[in-house]
Amino acid sequence: MQKKPFFPARRVFITSAGSVVGHKEKKGPLGALFDLGGDDRFGKDSWEKAEAEMQRLALGIAMRKAELVEGDLDLLVAGDLVNQCVSSSYGLLGYRIPFLGLFGACSTCAEGLLLATLATASVCRRCAAVTSSHFCTAERQFRYPLEYGGQRTPTAQWTVTGSGAFIVSSRPGDAQRTTGVYVPEILDVMPGCIVDRGITDAANMGAAMAPAAADTILRYRDSGCLGDEILFVTGDLGAEGSAILYDLLRAQRLDIEDRHTDCGLRIYHRDAADAHAGASGCGCSAVVLAAELLEMVKSGEIAEMCFLATGALMNTAAVQQGQSIPGIAHLVHIRGVRRDTVCDGQTE
Amino acid sequence: MQKKPFFPARRVFITSAGSVVGHKEKKGPLGALFDLGGDDRFGKDSWEKAEAEMQRLALGIAMRKAELVEGDLDLLVAGDLVNQCVSSSYGLLGYRIPFLGLFGACSTCAEGLLLATLATASVCRRCAAVTSSHFCTAERQFRYPLEYGGQRTPTAQWTVTGSGAFIVSSRPGDAQRTTGVYVPEILDVMPGCIVDRGITDAANMGAAMAPAAADTILRYRDSGCLGDEILFVTGDLGAEGSAILYDLLRAQRLDIEDRHTDCGLRIYHRDAADAHAGASGCGCSAVVLAAELLEMVKSGEIAEMCFLATGALMNTAAVQQGQSIPGIAHLVHIRGVRRDTVCDGQTE
User: Fold this and answer.
1) For tag attachment on chain A, is the N or C end more exposed, with fewer CB atoms within 10 Å?
2) How far is A202 from chain B (nearest CA, A)?
3) CB-CB neighbours of B31 under 10 Å
């Protein structure tokens, strides 16, 4: 196994992002930051169609911000939680851009950015990465009918209704056209290994995913790439999973509690109804990264971060057949670089 | 949109492949070519676990043929048809190799080879691409309970029980260690766009996917990369979809009927019970490519081919909600190169 992260051969930047959310997310502490939101239906007659529509809107917003049209994008990578990832295929159908479908569960945002980095550093000018989740599609597909009023356990997380889209570009001109003092540059990426620690409780995804996050962070540390100042951002471990992550890492002599945040703990107010251990879903880390964290990188508030979206690689049939829930975590190392230094050593 | 295919920056080879199939496939005309097969259960107590086991076995075989151990592989890309792609995550869980999950429906084999090419040409030494399908998991997930004895329509296809795994390497030493006079080299790849022509009949996947195959082939022709001698191999259009493909291409002044074959028409005897329009499933193109076509490249019988696996990007909920079935087709351009010329211009 490769011991090092993957370093792109060309400099690669996140030059634009779009975020679209539902009403619960809009009412949360980050509400004002999202590009679009406040409704869960988006004018559609099914939740599945509404989720697809969010992806369409999020990519459109990201493209508009970067002043790009379809022909400017060479590749689109996208995935979601709905069976056979149809939110992506129906949502992005209208864009005539070569498309690669991903399945990474809630790690999809990081997986998409990782692949966009590899593609943009080698064969593409620009690649878009898109993902989404919707509380109503996820709830009825993975758990219970929406009409069913079951009690939620304290470790349960609330699936975010939201979609995030990112434009990854290797063109210095694109980076220079961004707003903000700093441009988010992807320095390196590290794909995760599948990790199974025997968790069988489908209402405790944090516990299923935390070992995968720990595994990737430790592999990254062992590669020698981990600076002392890097902020760790996990996708949707929630309160339960974050606590488990700290314990697992402390056992390996790494303490990250003071420099860690979890997107699942940022998007809802702590007293939001039924959010319990926090938020989850592919959309969770995608919209928090798009609307809040990348803006903090651009303003200089965050200098450098390891963004780790985590996923639980199960389905309902597997859980019913008694299988445990494996997790995965992909890492994307992002640093803010001064916009006026972008041209250094880079040819357009 | 990028008008050209993606050309890898380093030479990339398919240095090994493994194929595992079920009993219907083993009894077919290619039966003797598969590495392992003849049973549909693989010692497991559910069809889903059996499908996962096929992936595990297929990758193990491909690694053994190439004399590789886990540490020699830097990346694993895999996907399947089962909800949330769990055949891949459970099947490949035991391999400690960084993993990226894909969803491309029946186009997954080509999508995996495409991404393995991009990764191997830039950041990896070697990458494995794996996919599978199983008649019993697909039938009960997408169509009817297995016990239900519904009549199948003439356009229906039979989902292949099988898994194919491929090792893609950029190391000339790996290519030189292969058997055969020629080594399959991936010259370029072209990801497909999502194409929706309004097909709503879930028992006619060939019709849903043929427009996507035509779209990718025409984009490839327009890029100027299409030689006159290239064989076209589609994944699982079957009899119906192949006929539609010829018609669509003839309308654009391209006739490929004399130099086209479809994996879905090669794997079962024409009079095999219920195979009707041919075979389908992620496993179909994967096992035919692994067991038959790559061997023909290695012997020189096939000089050059465009391998296009096609996928139908739907799920049952979408079809029930009245949505049409979009298709996609990714292209992988493979040529046999003499083994003794592999070192040319390539550094280990």
Assistant:
1) C
2) 14
3) 17
